[in-house]
Amino acid sequence: MPRDEHREGIKGMANPTRYGIERVAYWLMRLSGLGLLAYFVAHIYETSNILRGQVGWDEFLELTQTTEGHLFLAIVIAMCVFHTVNGIRVMLGHGGVGVGKPARPDYPYEPASQNYRHKIGIYSAILLAAIAMMYGLAVMFGE
Amino acid sequence: MRESTIMKIHYGTALAAVALVAVHILMRLTQGFAESLEYENVLANYKFIPYAAMLELILILLSIHGFNGLRVILLELKQGRVYEKAVSYGCLAAMIGLIAYGSRTIIMTNMGMI
Amino acid sequence: MAQVSSVPKGQTSPTSKSITLRISRFNPEHDESSGFMEFPISYEKWTTVLEAILDVKKHFDHSVAVRYSCRQATCGSCGMIINGKPRLACFTKISELNSNVVTVEPMNNFPIIRDLAVKFEKLFDTHQKIKPYLIRDDTEIQSNEKEFLQSPEEVEQYIQFANCIKCGLCNSACPTMATDSSFVGPQALAQAYRYVADSRDKGKDSRLKIIDDSHGIWRCHFAGSCSQVCPKGVDPAMGIQLLRGYLLGFRS
Q1: Contact, C2 vs C37, CB < 8 A?
Q2: Chain C neighbours, 3+ Cβ pairs < 8 A
Q3: What is the mean pLDDT of residues C131-141?
Q4: How many beta-carbon contacts under 8 Å exist across A and B?
Q5: Domain containing residue C77: CATH number
Q6: Looking at the predicted structure, is the pLDDT value of residue C101 above 90?
Q7: Which of A5, A28, A34, A41 is the best substitution to test chain B (most B C-beta atoms within 10 A)?
Q8: If contacts are CB pairs under 8 Å, which of residues 65-104 in chain B contact chain A?
Q9: Are C214 and B75 in contact, with CB atoms under 8 Å apart?
């Protein structure tokens, strides 16, 4: 990127602190998407161990069924739930659902698209992700 | 392909994957998490054709959705004709590669070629 | 480059308070990197950031480069980063910033001309690209009618987006614009919606074709930062999502 364009760059794009919860959701969506893709590739490799027979499968299972493995899986569950719930919110928004109706703006110009419906959607996604993560931990460590 | 068509596929694969992954996770939970990962149970899952077909579908849907998502992020990070072509074709190749690799596991296990 | 200047004696009123105004200084022609100059400024409840900058120009350093014109949030010239967020300097009172230090920097995602002044060529190019005018087969001149009549409801559909003053704050706040130099940007996309939603316009298909590109409307992820910084209530995020509805088949 040429220096003279004065773009904020990745640091500015990834900075979730300045523009409210919507920008935090944007950042989390991106991060969880990349995390889930990495997990998905690893999962496809992990399950391919079944072709090595029972010994190969059990060997690989021993590597993943550890405390660290369970904690990692709990994070994956949280990412999955957040990405799903927030993804549905964003998809509805992209279709124009819940973004408000055009109207003559009045001071102090509160943007209708940044409304409580979407904020509730974002907080719900975070809350559900946390609940799912705790449920996952209970299931994995409960056994 | 027009960008709107690609993004419609992106949304469609996401919705379909959500439903199928939910079934996939529920299968782990109904059997008991640790028990469902035992060799015999996993093998039985793969040999049950409707379940194997569902896994194949999940593999295709998530590969398309995931690698298109990666393409979008990479296209936004850097621009340039060569770079953008490399990203698009690279993601397509990775998508096809992952589908082929995952399909090999599903088909070989389903047909008992272990 | 940091420099501290002093307030001229006898120029403050009894009700005035003071802050430190930090101004980013950078001349791409001979500076390697940008730096800040600091000025103690006295202000009243109603003093705007632009007035403070002009005060610096008048009393301390005339070489500070800033673009401004109307001083009433109409011309869209004085957009800059004020305490980390894109705002209009003429529309931002120092008193509402609640800070003893006010830092002003040039807008992000725009090439710097000097200090606080940035180039708007790219903004105007993308604005031009989406055909910001009514497209019709007939014209007012050929028709017997003197004007194209619209109901108040039809006007409501786009009037909000016609408030855009092309200040560039939305493009400066957009996370995609931060890294994507080819992105059309929220300003142009909101203007595309403004004309597509206008009942007099017949250029919807050609505009949708322009924005349905790998660096077009699909690179907006509804982060909403553009709408949060818009000083005129245009709400570009709303316009973009409604515009996308046409491409997704939700609207016709």
Answers
A1: yes
A2: A, B
A3: 82
A4: 65
A5: 3.10.20.30
A6: yes
A7: A41
A8: 66-67, 69-70, 73, 76-78, 98, 101-102, 104
A9: yes
In a domain, C5, yes or no: no
| Full DSSP string of chain A | --GGG---HHHHHH--SSS-HHHHHHHHHHHHHHHHHHHHHHHHHHHGGGGGHHHHHHHHHHHHSSHHHHHHHHHHHHHHHHHHHHHHHHHHHHTTTTS-------TT---TTS-HHHHHHHHHHHHHHHHHHHHHHHHHHH-
Interface of C with A in 35-94 (CB under 8 A): 84-85
C135 and C232 in one domain?
Answer: yes
Q: Is residue A10 part of a domain?
A: no
Residue A131 in domain: yes
Number of domains in chain A: 1
Pick from A22, A104, A113 the residue to mutate for testing the C interface (most C CBs within 10 Å).
A113
Query: What per-residue confidence (pLDDT) applies to C6?
Result: 47
First-to-last alpha carbon distance for chain C, in angstroms, is 56
Instruction: Look up the domain containing A132 and give its range.
Output: 19-35+67-97+113-142
Pick the last residue of a domain from C89, C118, C147. C118
Q: Which chain A residues are Cβ-neighbours of C118 within 8 angstroms?
A: 6
Range of the domain at C155: 121-248
Report the half-sphere exposure of C99 (CA within 13 A, side-chain side): 15
Q: Is A6 left (phi over 0), alpha (psi -120 to 50) or beta?
A: left
Identify whether residues C97 and C196 lie together within a single domain.
no
Chain B nearest CA to A107, separation (Å): 34
pLDDT of C3 > 70? The answer is: no
Best A50, A67, A137 residue to mutate vs chain B (most B CBs within 10 Å)? A50
Instruction: Say if residue C125 is in the same domain as residue C209.
Output: yes
pLDDT tens digits along C203-225 = 999 999 999 999 999 999 999 99
CATH 2.40.30.170 fits B3-110, yes or no: no
Label residue A1 by pLDDT band (50, 70, 90).
very low
Same domain, C197 and C151: yes
Which of C118, C145, C168 is the C-terminal boundary of a domain? C118
What is residue C199's predicted lDDT score, i.e. its pLDDT?
A: 94
Q: Is residue C136 located within the same domain as residue C204?
A: yes
